[in-house]
Amino acid sequence: MSAEALPPESAPSPHRASEARLLQLRRQAETRGRVEGVGVHPPGAPFPKASPDAGYYGIPMLKEPQWKWEVPLYFFVGGAAGSAAVIGAMASWIGRDPELRRSARLVAASGGLISTGLLVADLGRPARFLNMLRVFKKQSAMSLGAWTLAGFSTFSGATAFAELVAEHFDFAPIRVLGHISEAFSAALGLPFHNYTGVLIGATAIPVWNRNITMLPIHFGMSGLNSAVAILELLGHDSPALNLLGIGASGFETYEGLHLEQRPEAALEPLKHGLSGWITRLGGVFSGPVPLGLRLAAQISRSRRMRRAACWSAIAGSLLTRYGWMQAGKASARDWRLPLEISPSAPQTADLQSKSQVPQVRGLKTA
Amino acid sequence: MSANIPDFSLPGSQPRITAFLTDSTLCIGCKACEVACKEWNGVAEDGLNWSGFSYDNTGAVSASTWRHVKFVEDEPQPGFGGAAGEVNSWSFSSDVCKHCEQAGCLEACPTGSIVRTEFGGVYVQPDVCNGCSYCVVSCPFGVIQKNDSDGRAFKCTFCYDRQKAGLPPACAKACPTESIKFGELNELRLVAQERVQELHRRGVHDAQVYDPQQTSVEGIHAFFLVRGDPRTYNLPPQPEVPTIYLKAAWRAAAFGSAALLAGSLLAFFASPRGSARPKSSSRRHRR
């Protein structure tokens, strides 16, 4: 019997042991017609079951978000660009700070351009972006967002164009164009800086929709924090920027503490695993670190501390977006949440380590 | 019982709202529906790897699996699942897109690619879909998925092409036991209730219909007759269409925008006017 050959040495040892025991059982059965003692304990046993307490073998019901690196980066860039447009308008109308206005206009316009590029990269082909503009659907946050992006990048681009042209040919129409498009760009910057919180909040992913009233404000403040940081790193130390930075990082500190205090099972991906680490690290870099550094810089008049606060806020904002995206993926994998099964049931991760639960399988298409 | 084949080909006849009733008490797990669906719709093969859980080799509905037979394997139960007590009791249920009354994917689609057909089904127009994958996170049943190699989202079409031609969907046509019934929505809901009553009379007391009409999904056009808790079949007790979160979300966004506007107004009013001259030499001087 060729089946008597043992598996190769490279095979994992539990497998070898159980194969050896099976061989023994087969021999017993052949010679005596019956077997004695226990059989094998296959690696990974006990296997998950299909039951009201374990769902369908613990296979996740929801599909994971399929967005890749472009989309969290888009959230970051969009948040910063939208906020920068608002700051630019204020610097222009109230602050009378043409230097800051110029930088803010350029940051907003580049942000609009980069955002469009990232969205196109996510879709795969530039022509696909145009499909977003064939309908206007108020019940789709993605549709409203696409229209906001289209408007924002147009008007912020026009504003920056006016700014650059006015440097060389300063005539009235170009200044009027600058002011009008700046008003539109700031008006659209308001929804553009935080609509991404609505986008991921109004979905079927538990960790996102459980934070629906907080995500838009959280993402908006994160965007403001990074916009202030970028403008300060471009060389502006306007006290208004510092005040905004203190406000945004103060809010992020409060938000982080608030999240930590909520014990809901749906928020687990924000506290445990890879997604938990990224989100928490993002929270620390967005909130307490820049807040502390800014307050210390107020006392010590240290420019270096303010710069450190800026870099921390940028890193924090980026990590926050990637953290929430990872948390959404982890949340979709947690089969217990949509089935309303108690969190004391074993986690998906445990089941997966024991046996090879097929996730969304790789598609073999031509 | 005869196959419920509505005749839509008659001239002047109004298209009717159609539905699937998938009866797990009649399913024999033959996967003819999976095969017929792939054959008719030209859906790619997606691996013949065993999941390790019973005889399931597809795991879940996905971009390349529009019908998926679930194999629910129970402890040996004398009297069920065969003559001998040692034989496992098995139930099978063919899963499919639910074609919700309030469909999360349809509401979320920013291109208008996902539409409601004249038969009440939810259909993705492949020539319009731009692969934004927002529908993927908006489906409360985890049905629709983006095909990464193609870049667009796919799911059950309810055989829109066949229904247009007056034919039943391929899976219902291929089902050898009439476990997948196809017919007019309200008629089929009655058929489902009658079947449950019949099963109860015959001693199968745990038979029930899964059709979440009390949730924001407001019912589905592909309902299931299952035995016991629907969660065993990965059917959520309380599916919600994500548009219910929109009001709270936009209110929060408006509040956040107001905070940004008020905050920046305050910050610039509170600060001294005019360009603050740089203290550091790192400042880029212009003109």
What does this structure look like?
The complex is a heterodimer of chains A (366) and B (287). Chain A has two domains: 65-202, Formate dehydrogenase/DMSO reductase domain (Formate dehydrogenase/DMSO reductase fold); 205-330. In chain A, 67% of the residues lie in helices and 1% in strands. Chain A has helices spanning 13-32, 70-95, 98-123, 126-131, 141-168, 172-201, 206-209, 215-233, 239-261, 273-286, 288-300, 303-333, 348-354, and strands at residues 50-51, 55-56. In chain A, β1 and β2 (55-56) form a beta hairpin. Chain B has one domain (18-241): 2-Layer Sandwich (Alpha-Beta Plaits), CATH 3.30.70. Chain B is built from seven helices and ten strands. Chain B has helices spanning 32-41, 104-108, 134-138, 160-164, 170-174, 185-201, 246-270; strands spanning 18-23, 67-74, 89-96, 114-116, 122-124, 145-147, 152-154, 180-184, 207-210, 222-227. In chain B, a hairpin with a 4-residue loop joins β6 (145-147) and β7 (152-154). Chain B is elongated. The interface between A and B is large, with 108 and 101 residues.
Summarize the structure.
The complex is a heterodimer of chains A (366) and B (287). Chain A is mainly alpha-helical and 366 residues long.
